[in-house]
Amino acid sequence: MGHLFVEFFQNTGFYLCDYRYIIMILIGFVFIYLGIVKDYEPLLLVPIGFGMLVGNIPIFKGLGLGIYETNSVLHYLYFGVTQGIYPPLIFLGIGAMTDFSTLLARPVLMLLGAAAQTGVFLTFLGALALGFAPNEAASIGIIGGADGPTAIFLTAKLAPHLIGPIAVAAYSYMALVPVIQPPIMRLLTTRKERLIRMEEPRVVGKKEKVIFPIVAFLLCCFLAPAALPLLGMLCFGNLLKEAVVTERLAQTARTSLIDIATILLGLTVGASTQGDVFLTPASIKIFVLGAGSFGVATAAGPIFAKIMNLFLKTKINPLLGAAGVSAVPDSARVVQMVGQKEDPSNFLLMHAMAPNVSGVIGSAVAAGILWSFMA
Amino acid sequence: MYGFDAINANNGWSIAAVGIIIVFTGLVMLSLIISQLYKVLEFIENPKRFEFLSRKKGVEKKEKYTLLFLSKNQKESAKQFSLIIKTMEEHFPLPKLLRLAEVNGLGEPYNNLTTLLDAGIVEPDTEGYFIWNKERFNKLVS
After folding, report:
1. Which ipTM did the prediction report?
2. Are A211 and B37 inside 8 Å of each other by CB?
């Protein structure tokens, strides 16, 4: 009877555990804490954080429990990540909940979304310089787009073995937008610039809103066909929303569908961070490069807005540039918060949504370009 | 391989440059198209509104100020404000002007400041501050 107890004990997590699992479980706690207590992207951080706990229970290999074991349930759920299925579904939902009115009212703000993608390509260079292969470097660079689904999608296509660290880095920085962005924004702008008020945007007509997703899809996908899965779904979702007659489909896309995809994606990405696979020097490099990428992407927007102001008659508040990263709507909220610290009566949120949503388009196009170069 | 050698070996500079150019090209083209979209739609829906294109120039410009004349009291108040303005910087925040008006005991500062705004004597500088429009002041008060 004694040996049964010993055998049982040898199969328990207490026996199989090593320090790497403990570290990852602690990181999982931090994610759950940030999500629940600090309210940083809770819809993402709580599933990922709990997924980290799930993925880091030390298990006896061969039982078909771990996410990397081909016959496990988690492995089947993870299929949606590795094959790039969940990100387009999330984009469908994002499209169905995004209002492009402010972008249509002031299209020039779209350039700020393009400027932020500079960070993606500079980080690509940085990753190459640190010894990553081109496919891996492209996947790391896209973290600067601050778009979790895009980062996962591209990594699934180019460097599937890096999905865990890249997804965790991308979502961590997305969640930390309110912490990372304000110092960079304040550093790059003067008080006078932060006080600039934006003109009231014109009213956008219904027809414009319906035509926009079709035009945007055709133009961007003709230019960068590899952006098709993401942009196609984003624009389709938006068309469902704006067409009105398809409201029932839009409602499903922006509620149940995106929620299911987010739960499955978050949980399985979290579970993919198994300590023995995740805690490697490459992961640390990815986190450092990701932070750099996000910082450069944030800085590129305000700098580009200042350059635009040299030529524009009606000046743009350079803070809006920081919303060019596609963390929707968090970076737009941060712009509002920083702007209101200087002038409580200055409302920038609505204006910041324009570069913010164009950042989503920009990062999907950037991902498409990188994919087509590396494929 | 590390550093610039790795970037050069993998054609990194070209990929980054071309990537940035394509992203900008795409979004610039899209912004150009959508900036003209509403005009095209408006033209299709209501071509009559564009008849002005064939009309000669010289149509009278609409007055942008809502207040075109000042009463005697309003003129007096504007003069008092002009004295305060001389102590301030060229671009000033409105609350500061209001506070100085109150400190200096000007009568009904809120109403009188609204009058100056309506008359275009105090104007927003589009950067969050306000300026004193001397030309307008001279026209209406002097």
Report:
1. 0.84
2. yes
